[in-house]
Amino acid sequence: MLIKQITSKIEAGTDEAGRGCLAGPVTAAAVILSKDFELPLLNDSKKLSEKQRYALRPQIEAKAIAFSYAHVYPDEIDQINILNASIKAMHLALSQLKINPDFIAVDGNRFHPFGNTPFECVIKGDGKYQHIAAASILAKTYRDDYMKKIHAEFPDYLWEQNKGYPTNVHRKVIAKKGPTPYHRKSFQLIPRQIVLPI
């Protein structure tokens, strides 16, 4: 059973998706839920099937007091690194909420202050708090939507299936065809070969 929130204030939960991918944006979402919010299947997006995530998204959006999401794209990821890009995506999502939260619950263990709003980092928060779990579902599904869209432009990389994660098939296509403009050039796209002493 997920906990509703940390404080009694207007509280936003935020999470990101796509941090470990080789291609595409890192996407974050922020969600403010009411004190009486109930959604029985709500859970960490990684514990749900794709079908469950997409079924939950419109329910979250219909019942949430406020929600938003934001992408940070590969060029900027390469410039500021993936941690800073993930936090920037969370800040962008928070800034787009129609209500300013009094407190922020952040999935993970790293965050930069968002103005003067108090916050708390919660390791594996998407499996503990409803608003972080809801944010994880929105971040994951909106990022997946983006990857499915660009799959049509570069179908050989099978982003419709792997969503940009470093699967063996994805790496093999990069080795054969090279990176696309959607790849993160600062990431190790192809594993370094082990050099054995002769």
Word description of this protein:
It is a single chain. The chain is of the alpha/beta class and 198 residues long. The protein has a single domain (11-177), classed as Nucleotidyltransferase, domain 5 (2-Layer Sandwich), CATH 3.30.420.10. Helices cover 36% and strands 15% of the residues. It contains six helices and five strands. It has helices at 50-63, 74-80, 82-95, 130-151, 159-162, 168-177, and strands spanning 11-17, 26-32, 66-72, 103-107, 119-122. Strands 3-2-1-4-5 form a five-stranded mixed β-sheet, sandwiched between helices. The longest helix has 22 residues, at 130-151. The termini are far apart. The model is unreliable at 194-198 (pLDDT under 50).
